[in-house]
Amino acid sequence: MMTNPMQRLTQGQFSFLPDLSDAEIKQQIEYGLEKGYAWSVEYTDDPHPRNTFWEMFGMPMFDLKDAAGVMMELAACRKTFPNHYIRMMAFDSTRNVESITMSFIVNRPPSEPGFGLVRQEVQGRSLRYTVQGYSSAKPEGERY
Amino acid sequence: MATIAANTAVNEPGPSQDKAATVDLQAIIRETQVGEVLDQLDRELVGLVPVKRRIREIAAYLAVTRARKALNLDASPPSLHMCFTGNPGTGKTTVALRMAEILHRLGYVRKGHVVSVTRDDLVGQYIGHTAPKTKEVLKKAMGGVLFIDEAYYLYRPENERDYGQEAIEILLQVMENNRDDLVVILAGYKNRMDTFFQSNPGMSSRIAHHIDFPDYSAEELLLIARKMVEQMHYRFNAGAETAMREYIAARLTQPNFANARSIRNALDRARLRQANRLFESPYGIDMEALMSLSEPDIRASRVFTQGSGGEAETGG
Ligand SMILES: Nc1ncnc2c1ncn2[C@@H]1O[C@H](COP(=O)(O)OP(=O)(O)O)[C@@H](O)[C@H]1O
Ligand SMILES: [Mg+2]
Fold it and tell me: Which of B190, B213, B236 is the last residue of a domain?
């Protein structure tokens, strides 16, 4: 049995759906802007589930009125990192919320080999488990 | 197919176009309520006859373009970038706000807000600083109007390494590629703007509409003063209006005169003097007194005492 039959990273919103089109991404951004969220663009080539902090592509975008501005930033990020994972993050600055409220992947490498399970034998018959990306052995920037 | 009469028959042959198709221009004007904005412009702004006429023409052109688009006669969106030239205080910023409203109602910008900037907001201090700064402003202006005041400061020919050039290039790119996303309005003195366009043909060729704002006459300035006083819920007492008329005549001849802005500043200072007068008054103060600007409030101005000696805008 395949453990990763879709050959796709599933993190954040919409990740079990087919990739969002640009028009659909724009709609999500527009929705967030209406709620007053600040969008930001992040990228990585280390998509390990424990890697919560991806690299920021520019600053979070406060005070934008229209999705076109956010899409411009996304286009710039895709141009710089065409084969990286890129995700959109919406930050809600409402007092006592002050956290990310939306997050979804908008760019993927052409092939996603996924993660392998690593078993470590310790203290007799005990086992420790961890996951390791098949691409993660290579140095940063050469993984996808 | 809609068959409502339009006062301008749209019958140019277009690609694969049914010539019998009609579109109701009046309906566009009614539904978008663009007429309301135009009327408001007429009502709120004194004078500016040529400016108002040009704005009406542009609004008509935009409404017709929209009608043409409904019948597939126009493929590419019209270029909407503009340049407002005129001396300080002639109403450029105010008209830009109305223009944004018109563009929004006719569907040429999605949100209709105005982001107002000068050189300092666009140009950075060191290598690599300018591009992110300009882009940040552009991102905020998307869906609305980017108003660049004193745009010629972006170009400093005396310094060939000036970062302003970089900002201009990014602006040009976005003005061309994101026509649907934002409209740029440049503003400033007429002669300096002309020089700027001569050295920046790329910018010049992307500006579709040039509107020149004339200086106000003394008569118009008095009307503007009356309007402002009314808007602030004050009124001129007997004698105060005559004093204001004389103030305007004197102020016109002095340096740093900034049209309607000088009037607003003069009224602000008159309000200060009025407040001071009331504060020191031993009598009870009624509504009438709170609302009245009286002759001494105006006449205490340095404009009267100094002659044409050069009153700064900060002076009394
Ligand atoms: N025609 C006018 N009628 C009434 N008020 C005016 C008029 N023109 C300008 N003002 C007022 O004068 C002030 C300065 O105008 P502004 O639009 O900022 O001028 P500019 O941008 O050309 O320097 C504003 O407070 C504006 O409301
Ligand atoms: Mg101004």
Answer: B213
Q: Tokens at residue B184, please?
A: 């740029």
Categorize the per-residue pLDDT at B28 as very low, low, confident or very high, splitting at 50, 70 and 90.
confident
Q: Which ligand is nearest to the CA of B97?
A: 1
Q: Candidates B40, B51, B222, B261: which one to mutate for ligand 1, based on the most atoms within 8 Å of Cβ?
A: B261
Name every residue whose Cβ is closer than 8 Å to that of residue A74 and which is 6 or more positions away in sequence. Answer: A25, A41, A86, A88, A106
Domain that holds residue B268: 218-307
ipTM confidence score:
0.86
| Ligand 1 neighbour B88 (Cβ under 6 A) | yes
Cα B242-B243-B244 angle, rounded to 5 deg: 90
Q: What is the pLDDT of residues A63-92, one digit of tens each?
A: 999 999 999 999 999 999 999 999 999 999
Q: Are residues B119 and B246 in the same domain?
A: no
pTM: 0.87
Q: Which domains occur in chain A, in start order?
A: 22-111 (3.30.190.10)
B96 lines ligand 1 (CB under 6 A): no
Rounded average pLDDT over B102-107: 93
Query: Nearest-CA residue of chain B relative to A38?
Result: B140
Q: Is the CB of B52 under 6 A from ligand 1?
A: no
| C-alpha atoms less than 13 angstroms from C-alpha of B163 in its C-beta half-sphere | 16
DSSP-derived letter for residue A19 is: P
User: Is B140 inside a domain boundary?
Assistant: yes
Q: What is d(CA B179, CA B151) in angstroms, rounded to the nearest whole number?
A: 19
Q: What are the tens digits of pLDDT across the range B182-219?
A: 999 999 999 999 999 999 999 999 999 999 999 999 99
Residue B139 to residue A65, Cβ atoms within 8 A: no
The answer as to whether B84 is a domain residue is yes
Give, as residue ranges, everything with CB less than 5 Å from ion ligand 2: B 93
